[in-house]
Amino acid sequence: MKQILTLIATVTLSLAAHSQLEMNNTKTVAVVKGSYIYNFAKNCQWDESFYETGVFKMAVYGDRDLYNELIDKYDNRPINNQVVEVVWVTDLDMLFDEQIVFLSEVKKNDLTLASDIAEENGSLLITDFNGAISLGSIINFVIVENTISFDLNLAQAVTNDINLGNRMNNWANKIVEE
Amino acid sequence: MKYLLVFTLALLSSNAISQNEELVNNALEAYKQGSFLEAKSLIDESITFTENDVSPKVWNFRGHIYKQLYKESIQDQGASYRDEAVTSFKKSCELSSDGQYYPDNIKALEYLSATYFNDAVDSVLKLKYNGGENPVQFFQNFKELKLWLKPQEGVKAEELMFLKMLAQSYEKIHTKHDSEDRESILKAISYYEQALGLDGQDYEANFNLAIIHYNEGARLIGGISYKTGMDELISIQTRCVEYFRHALPFMKKAESLRPNRVESLKGLMFINRALNNFDIYLEYKSKLDEILNN
């Protein structure tokens, strides 16, 4: 009996010791970017015409994880007197009256066109790839010591009639004035 | 019961019955009748006599009385009986110059050692949030006794498995009781670190420790909601990166120990993505895709 008991205990111990834990499958990057975008929405001011409807539109172009995150946590959430509506864009022609447009690295060849459209529509163009800030993006996500931060292009924000507010300057990694 | 025959014959060989011997005889009678508590009182009184205190025979008998009490006891009550049985058998071994009782002592001690081990495993399985018996003490008792019985064998293999099992149980408790239970996750980390102290090349300990650190960071990020303000977001990110940085060397080690394993490649992929090392993330992703497609 002693041997059987010890064998059972040893097998139990061995099985437990050799089992592996499961990784948390949170899409970490998308969650952080999503939170930044919602906070940008809360801290910036757009042209008055954007406040005539009850909807605050966010468009995502090229990043499905980010789109899903925004839909999951922020769609229908309030921002001042508006509620967020998140849309997935498959073509830049679909853009019209969005306060925020996110263009991901996989669509970087469309940056110039997206910037022109954002300028015309008065949208806040957000990107996440090198060089975007000097090519028409207003906010570009950058990596600083393994964390996601962002650079701001103040001049482009003025051109698009967007007031970024003082606090945004404090949070930014770098501010481009020209 | 074979042991009882030897013991009885040994007693009968004495002619003059002194008070100390009478106590032992009475204890034996009580033992035969199954009155172990009475036997215990008599044998404890008997060892106050010097002649009995230096007798391997009496200490062996005392060990058996306490062993029986342990076997008949329920749960907590048995622990002190078992400890006392171990002490008695050990003392009998130390006093046994002719070795007559030695084999019986060792056999009994091996049995008791197995019960410590079983209790250690059992109490790990029954660990609860803020409760349960202390498995470490049981294992410590097993370890001491095993090393005393077979010093050349050591207990490294059992200790390594035990520490990993303990760590995993605390991790499960933490997962079940959600984020506020810091104590459990810190214990899980500590036990995995102790396991790696015993064997830094252990795959599971490296892999699971990496996962714990990664999951801690991912859990914090998963807690981000529409209520999270910018300052809090920046603070959360800073804390998460620390967790992810802690996870990385353990997952790298796991991958080096068992190269090209899907789980560790996936781990390296996730950790590097969380650390925003996108080039490295893509390298692991491509390697993983290659393995999965073959």
Strand content of chain B: under 5%
Please tell me the total number of domains of chain A.
Answer: 1
CATH superfamily of chain A: Response regulator
Biggest pleated sheet of chain B: none
Tell me the span between the first and last alpha carbons of chain A. Answer: 83 Å
- How many strand elements of chain A? 8
Low-pLDDT sequence parts of chain B:
none
Task: Give a written overview of the molecule.
The complex is a heterodimer of chains A (178) and B (294). Chain A is an alpha/beta fold and 178 residues long. Chain A has a single domain (24-176), classed as Response regulator (Rossmann fold, 3-Layer(aba) Sandwich). Chain A contains 6 helices and 8 strands; from the N terminus they run ααβαβββαβββααβ. In chain A, strands 2-3-1-4-5-6-7-8 form an 8-stranded mixed sheet, sandwiched between helices. Chain A is elongated. The longest helix of chain B has 28 residues, at 230-257. Chain B is 78% helix and 0% strand. The chains are: A alpha/beta (178), B mainly alpha (294). Chains A and B meet through helix 1 and helix 2 of A and helix 7, helix 9, helix 11, helix 12 and helix 13 of B.
Concise structural overview:
With 178 residues, chain A is of the alpha/beta class. In chain A, 37% of the residues lie in helices and 22% in strands.
Features:
heterodimer, A: 178 residues, alpha/beta, Rossmann fold, 6 helices, 8 strands, B: 294 residues, mainly alpha, 78% helix
What is the fold's blueprint, element by element?
The complex is a heterodimer of chains A (178) and B (294).
Chain A: H1 2-17, H2 28-43, E1 55-61, H3 64-73, E2 78-79, E3 82-88, E4 100-103, H4 111-121, E5 124-127, E6 139-144, E7 147-153, H5 154-159, H6 166-171, E8 174-176
Parallel strand pairs in A: 1-3, 1-4, 4-5, 5-6, 7-8
Antiparallel strand pairs in A: 2-3, 6-7
Helix pairs in contact in A: 2-3
Chain B: H1 2-12, H2 19-32, H3 36-46, H4 50-53, H5 56-72, H6 77-95, H7 102-125, H8 135-149, H9 156-176, H10 182-198, H11 203-222, H12 230-257, H13 262-274, H14 278-293
Helix pairs in contact in B: 2-3, 3-5, 5-6, 5-7, 6-7, 7-8, 7-9, 9-10, 10-11, 11-12, 11-13, 12-13, 13-14
